[in-house]
Automatic annotation (TrEMBL):
Keywords: DNA-binding, Transcription, Transcription regulation. The keyword Metal-binding does not apply. This is LysR family transcriptional regulator. One of its GO terms (molecular function) is DNA binding. The keyword Nuclease does not apply. InterPro entries: LysR_HTH_N, LysR_subst-bd, WH-like_DNA-bd_sf, WH_DNA-bd_sf. One of its GO terms (cellular component) is protein-DNA complex. Residues 1-58 form the HTH lysR-type domain. Pfam families: HTH_1, LysR_substrate. Belongs to the LysR transcriptional regulatory family.
Amino acid sequence: MELRHLRYFSAVADTLHFGRAARRVHISQPTLSQQIRQLEEEVGTPLFERTRAGVRLTQAGELFRTYASRALEDVNAGLSAVGALRGLATGALRVGYPPSMRGIVVPALAAVLRKHPGLALSAEEAVVRRLERRLADGRLDVGLGYAPARLADLDAEPVFDSRLVLVVARGHALAGAESVGVKLLAEEPFALLSRGLRVRARVDAHFAAIRLVPRVALESNAVATVLAIVRAGLAVTVLPEPRLADAERLVVKRLSPAPRSELAALLWRKGAPRTPAAELFAAEVRARAKEDAG
């Protein structure tokens, strides 16, 4: 018995007509009849009853149909799995994320590349508005942003709470504090992300809520620049968790009162198929978010 016998049997069982079944599987009717007879000889009993009124399944045929359908489904699933694996070996992955999430994205991308070094990765760092537009236009496979997404064409899958924290140099006077309140913050110079960025809007909203007018020593649209100034001990900053990138020689402290958190999310294009590489990346992000939450 070969796989083609199961496919030919399934076509006849579905149509109950040898002519239509032959056209479906792209062979001649006499050849199909011959293949079905071979299958019946292998099984040891008739699977179809042929009469002037047409064709119908015998009791044995009805029983065999269940197992033949299951076998074909398993084979098709196996072919899909192998195709997905082949895609991971030679395919591509296009990811977009905001600078504040670099600390969780970079380890996830590194894990993907270690498992599948043949993948061609493209990582785009940009503000969330731009990432959402590029994802909706099909120029990214998956993105990171916030839930809910601004664009109706996107689905947002929440993965972790994005909490604002104070970041100071390891030798800073506030590094030993359990939490930092308004009075202590009022005395510090700040290095902040530029106005117009979503994180800066969150930071400004928190400062307004606690009635703090920060002394801003530096503004930059690059997280790395802000952290470099903080690391040098020249300012403090407020950025989201988890896993700040470039966290060497830095200390993260809780703010009091605690700022309002947002849901960081994986962003997907609605109705679009998800590539195996994108699913693998998403699984790595979920795993790292779970580690941080634990």
